[in-house]
Amino acid sequence: MPAQTHLFLCLQDNYGVLLHDGATGATAAIDAPEESAVEAALTATGWRLTDILVTHHHADHTGGIAALKARHRCRVVAPHGEATRIPLVDTTVRERDKVAVGGLEGQVYETPGHTLGHIAYWFHPDNLAFVGDTLFSIGCGRVIEGTPGMMWRSLIKLRDLPDETKIYCGHEYPAANIKFARTIEPDNAALAAREAQARQQIANGEPTIPVTIGEEKKANPFLRADLPEVAAAVSMEGKQASQVFAEIRARKNKF
Ligand SMILES: [Zn+2]
Fold first, then answer.
1. Is 114 a catalytic residue?
2. How far, in whole angstroms, is CA 115 from its chain's centroid?
3. Whether the Cβ atoms of residue 219 and residue 174 lie closer than 8 Å to each other
4. Contact predicate 147/90, CB 8 Å
5. 57 an active-site residue?
6. Catalytic status, residue 171
7. Catalytic hit among 20, 21, 51, 56
8. Catalytic residue among 21, 51, 60, 126
9. How far apart are CA 103 and CA 122, in angstroms?
């Protein structure tokens, strides 16, 4: 039975998502930004919370864990490197570890940069990836604890997932991200198409995620720092991709 997902808004601009295995009834919350929003999502779906899969320690991803665990006695899975900064962890995971949600099979990718222990969860048979604050639609997370080179390598890891992989991120900032991306690649046709699509989605009150890796590769400048035309666009012809990425990220920070 294929995985089911339920996406919902919480806090100011976080996205929560539930991952459900219909065969066993298991349900994971990917991060727990806010107890009330996760509870409302559980009520709306009728699903029972069995697991919380944490991507990183920031409060807007972990603030609901204690209350949710107290009520549902669910398992809390968290990155090995940040377990001491996340409440009530049951299981810590590292690169390539397997994580099951009922009968659904996930795999852990370490994606440091935004935080040093940040991880993503890839549910390969269902073509789903939960990437926290590493990759956003037409954007990426701020490099807070790591280095730009570290973040670039993490993004490449996600870029190497199959094109059809659906990406669920911790936030979406489509309008601002697309506006910035157009300053880097004003002539990118795929980006222009995404802008039109996002405008329509926003007008309809729909989320602009999930997106696929294939779509992101064509339009997200942070995944395109190793292309000569992108290096040229920021006057860094011949420089290493990680340096080009660092320049694009620095420009976004000031945008
Ligand atoms: Zn964060």
1. yes
2. 13
3. no
4. no
5. no
6. yes
7. 56
8. 60
9. 14
CB atoms within 10 A of CB 107: 16
Written as one letter, the residue type at 243 is Q
Q: For residues 197 and 191, give the distance between their C-alpha atoms in angstroms, rounded to a whole number.
A: 10
Does the CA dihedral 127-133-135-139 come out positive or negative? positive
Whether pTM exceeds 0.90: yes
3-class secondary structure, 217: helix
Q: Quick one: which H or E segment has residue 194? A: helix 189-203
Q: For 160-217, write each residue's pLDDT tens digit.
A: 999 999 999 988 888 899 999 999 999 999 999 999 999 999 899 888 899 999 999 9
Question: Exposed, middle or buried by CB within 10 Å (0-12, 13-18, 19+), for 80?
Answer: middle
Mean predicted lDDT score pLDDT of the chain = 96
Sign of torsion over alpha carbons 54, 60, 66, 72? negative
Among 62, 111, 64, smallest CA distance to 85 is for 62
Provide DSSP, 82-134: GGGGSTT--EEE-TT-EEEETTEEEEEEE--SSSTT-EEEEEGGGTEEEEETT
For 207, the token pair is: 């989320």
Angle formed by the axes of helices 189-203 and 174-184, to 10°? 160
Residue 81 token pair? 């490197």
Residue 120 Cα to ligand 1 middle (Å) = 12
What percent helix, strand, coil does the chain show, rounded to 5? 40, 25, 35
What is the CB neighbour count within 10 angstroms for residue 128?
Answer: 22
Q: Given the residues 58, 72, 118, 126, select the one marked as catalytic.
A: 58
